[in-house]
Amino acid sequence: GAGVSQSPSNKVTEKGKDVELRCDPISGHTALYWYRQSLGQGLEFLIYFQGNSAPDKSGLPSDRFSAERTGGSVSTLTIQRTQQEDSAVYLCASSLMGTGFQPQHFGDGTRLSIL
Amino acid sequence: GQQVMQIPQYQHVQEGEDFTTYCNSSTTLSNIQWYKQRPGGHPVFLIQLVKSGEVKKQKRLTFQFGEAKKNSSLHITATQTTDVGTYFCAGPGSSNTGKLIFGQGTTLQVKP
User: Fold this and answer.
1) How far does the CA of residue A107 sit from the closest CA of chain B (Å)?
2) Residues of A in contact with B104 (CB under 8 A)
3) Nearest CA to B90 among A36, A94, A108, A45?
4) What is the model's pLDDT at position A98?
C-alpha cells in the first residue's frame, strides 16, 4: 500500500479483555513506532522497532502491553486485561530508517474504547 | 527525562491574522521536526530543521531553529481556515533510537 495501514480503525471492548492492534508499515521502511494519543493530548511514545527487534520499549506503560514485529513488516500491539485508562488512539508510524533524522509517516490510528 | 514543551496550548485567531507557536526542549537537539494534525486525522510531517539558526519557509509558514538548537518556532502569516489543526514539534529521543519526543501541540482555530 501507499501509506501506513492500521486495523481495526475502531475497537470497543469490555474492561479485562485482551485486544490486538495491527500496523502495516510502508513497504521498505525498516523502522516502526507505536504511539498513544489521549483525547486532546500529544503523542506518547510506546515502542520502536528496527527490523524485527525492539531496541527501545521504554514507553510501554506496563507489562500488560507487548508488541512484536515479524518479517520486518507487520507489527501487532497487544494489550492484555484492558483497563479504562487504556482508552486512547493508538498510532503507528514508520520511517525509512530509525536514525531520528527521518520523517515519520503515520497511519490513521486505532481508536480504542474500554467500557 | 527529556522534555519538549510547546506554547501556547490553544490559539484562536481571525482569518488573516498571524500565528506563532513556540517549542522548547530540555536538551540540545540534533534536529527538530514539525507535524500537523487536522481534526480527526493523523500527524503529517511538515519539515525538518537541522542546522543551528536555520530558517525554512513553506509558502506562508516560516520555521526557525534556535542558535542553541534547543528551541524552535513556527509562524504562519495571514492564516486561512485550511490552517486549522494541531501543530506538533518533535525532537529525537536522547537514546538516539529514532523515536521522537513530541511536544503537547498547539491547536489553532481560525475564525472566518
Assistant:
1) 7
2) 41-42
3) A45
4) 78
